[in-house]
What we know:
Layout: H1 3-10, H2 14-22, E1 29-30, E2 36-37, H3 41-54, H4 59-65, H5 82-124
Antiparallel strand pairs: 1-2
Amino acid sequence: MRIGELATRTGVSRRLLRYYEEQGLITSSRAGNGYREYVEAHVDVVRQIKGLLDAGLPTRIIQQLLPCLDQPQTIYVPDVTPEMIVTLRREHARLSERVEFLSRNRDAIADYLDKVLKVKESNKR
């Protein structure tokens, strides 16, 4: 499949797919006319990359994890190195901190919204 179809099927822009290639996250073959060509397996890989990026992992960590992803949503690490464990622990701590920060902000916005709506309701009466 060509880049446009991969973009449509994964919800990832063509530009971002090219970036994934620049970062070494995916590789394509080239047709005789120079167009990028992808195989069906790229759909799952791109979705995994997108999910890991959405979770806040940097591409350098994703690049290390990709060989360990044998199925969508599955991580299999046969020979984990001590460096990988340190890196994953650090990323886990960073993501946990981010989740806590986002949760506090979400709760503050919800409280503010509740107060604004109560004031608005009392002004209608």
